[in-house]
Structure formats: C-alpha cells, structure tokens
Amino acid sequence: MSDHPSRMALDCYALGVPDDAIEAHLTSCGRCRDHVEASRADPGAPPAALLARARPRRAGPALLGAVVLALAAGLALAVLPSTSVPDDGEPYTAAKGEPTLQLWVQRGDEVFPWAGDPVRPGDALRLEVSAPGNPRVEVRSDDLVLYDGYPEGDGFLPPTWGVDAEGRAEIMSVRLIDGPYDDWHQTLVVPKERAR
Amino acid sequence: MTATYRRWYPVIHGKCARMLRDPAEADDVAQEAFLRFWQKGLSDRDTEVAVAWVYKTATRLAIDRLRRQRTAQDHKRSVKPAPPALTDAVAARSTLAELARLVSEPELTAAVLHRMDGMTHAEVAKTMAVSDRTVRRLLTRFDERTEALRAEAR
After folding, report:
1. Which of A32, A60, B16, B78 has the fewest CB atoms within 10 Å around its CB?
2. Which residues 73-132 on chain B approach chain A with CB closer than 8 angstroms?
3. Shortest CA distance from B31: residue in chain A
4. What residues contact A92, with CB distance under 8 A and at least 6 apart?
5. A111 contacts A105 by C-beta, under 8 angstroms
6. Cα gap A10→A26, rounded to integer Å
7. Rounded-to-integer distance, Cα A37 and Cα A85, Å
8. What's the rounded Cα separation, in Å, for the pair B100 and B64?
9. Mutual orientation of helices B47-68 and A7-14 as an angle, nearest 10°?
C-alpha cells in the first residue's frame, strides 16, 4: 500500500478530527492536501432537486378522499385504490398501466394509506404494489434488503415492517425487476415523529 | 439541512465521484446518500462513525447503480470481455461497471475501499463491520474471481 493516509482518514481530518500524523504528512504531500481542501470546499446551498427529494410527500385529493371514505366506511385495505408516491414530492397521477405504489400504516386498530405525515414508533408499515406483469419487487433500506419477491394476489407485499424510534425517517427504496417496467424505482422517505 | 449539506456534501460527493464516471450519476448517488445521511441524523454522531457510514453506504449505492446499468452494448455482447488487470481493476472508474456485474457486492466493496480509497484492512473491517480476516478473505476471493474471469475470457 502507499504511504498516504486513506481517503477516509483524510476526510475525518478535513471534518475536524485531529490527527498529528496527517497534519505532518500534509506539509509535504500536495495530493493529500488537495483532497482535504476539496473535502472542505463549501458547496453552497443545497440544490432544489435535493430539497424536493427531502420534502415530505403529500397525497393528492383522490387519495385524501379515499382515506376519508375508508375511515368512514371501515373498508378493508384491498378495496382501496393505490396511489404512487413520486420522488419529486408533488401530487401524482399515474398513467394507465403505470406501476403504482402505496404505503399503508397501521396504528393500533386503525389502518390508513400514508399521505406524507410522520409515522410513529410502534406503527406498522406495509407496501402495496400495483404493476402490470406482476414483476419481482425489491425493497431496500440503506444497504439492507427488506424484501425481494413477488406481491401477493391483492398486490400487498407479504412482510409488515415496524417503525422504531431511531433516526428522522424510514427510507424505503422500491425497485421493480424483470417485468415490463424493469428497473422502475421509487424511494419513499417516511418522516418520523421526533421523540418528546 | 443546509448546515449539514455544506459540511458533509463535499465528502459524500467526492466519494461517489471517484467511483462513477458520469458526473450526473455521481450527483444523483451523492444526493441519495446525503439524504439518507441527513434523515438518519448522522451529523449528530461521532465524526469517524459518520464518515465510515458515508464510505460504506456511498460505495454500496454506487455499486448498486453500476450493476443496474444495462447498456445496449451489454445486450449485444455474446462474449464476456476480459476483466482488467487486477492492479488497475479498481483504480479505473471505467472498469467498475464491468466488475460490478462480475463479482459479489461484498468483494467489490472491500476492493474499492482498500484499493481505491487506500484504506488499511483494519479500516475496511471497521467500515464494513466485519473482521480483518473476513476482509482478507474478501480481497483474496476478489483477486481469484477476477483472475479466473480473465483466464476464461482469454
């Protein structure tokens, strides 16, 4: 291996972790000095695209109507329409035949479609996928594969996931594989209520 | 979010840019990694722990992106190309897309962290949350696999 510190060590130093050996090394190594300077460069304000991706999703009127209807009538999950949650944070209407994704929240005895509001520790989450051709579905959270398989007959994925108290949000990346919409993917960022 | 972005994004983006040739893809993967970083509140954690998370997550997101790249050329190709020479394999971003389809994710992650990011075995082990021995085994398997693929293609 080289005599240079690793890039991870340089980044730790750039972010303020003191390291005498790196400090001494930087006095004689332009390459590593450049790396540290690049890691300390100010990127300015976050781009609009990033802010949009971080914004909690809001459901369109059709979905809110479905929620009211479901709560009023006590309908079972399977009879409610599914609504996709787009990455740009705007209300979304799927074209005919386009895959749609709906996250459902169970809170106590109540079950409702997720409409962008924070979920709570103890809530249970379940995904419904509606896509032509019944493609395989992969769900990931970070580098962990939460599910890799096919939806059940009603479009629901078999597992139910519990919400814990850690972090600010649950992130679920959903990807369709091997179907007509191969590599279609969406990321759900589900904010959590902060601990009081 | 702005304060976290200004402090952490250059590190996250730099890591992604070293792995992905296309600047737009590097931006996209870096934003995905940053979003996860921010949502998890990692800026409040110990810096070394947070940087290790960045390296592990950004590496895996980039590998995942490379795996999903299916170009028309890939579909047309009937014979697998020879993987590049081992010493250059993870030093050249242009070869990573090829390797991402040919070796396992843990092996490639270990190889990228060790040979592209210059980490020691101990640093790779800490970042991947595995033992030093496992890192050595992953790197050996990576070498054996790429060598076998090169021999197969000759």
Report:
1. B78
2. 113, 117-120, 123, 127
3. A50
4. A60, A83, A84, A85, A86
5. yes
6. 10
7. 39
8. 8
9. 130
Token pair, residue B81, equals 């190309």
CA atoms within 13 A on the CB side of B89: 29
Closest in B10, B51, B60 to A43, CB measured: B10
In sequence order, the 6+-apart residues with CB closer than 8 A to the CB of A53 are A87, A88, A89, A187, A189, B31, B35
Q: What is the largest CA-CA distance in chain A?
A: 73
| Residue B71 forms contact with A (CB below 8 Å) | no
Q: Are strands A169-177 and A185-191 parallel, antiparallel or unpaired?
A: antiparallel
The tokens of A126 are what?
């379940």
**pLDDT 10s digit of each residue in chain B, 154 long?**
888 999 999 999 999 998 887 888 889 899 989 988 888 888 888 999 999 999 999 998 888 888 776 443 444 443 344 444 434 444 455 577 777 777 888 888 999 999 888 999 999 998 988 899 999 999 998 888 888 777 776 6
ipTM above 0.90, yes or no: no
How, if at all, do strands A144-149 and A161-162 pair? unpaired
Distances (CA, A) of A119 to A67, A72, A116, B38: 16, 21, 9, 17
Structure tokens at B137: 């085994």
Residues whose CB falls within 8 Å of the CB of residue B83, separated by 6 or more in sequence, listed in order: B89, B95, B98, B99, B102, B146, B149, B150, B153
Q: Do A89 and A55 contact (CB within 8 A), yes or no?
A: yes
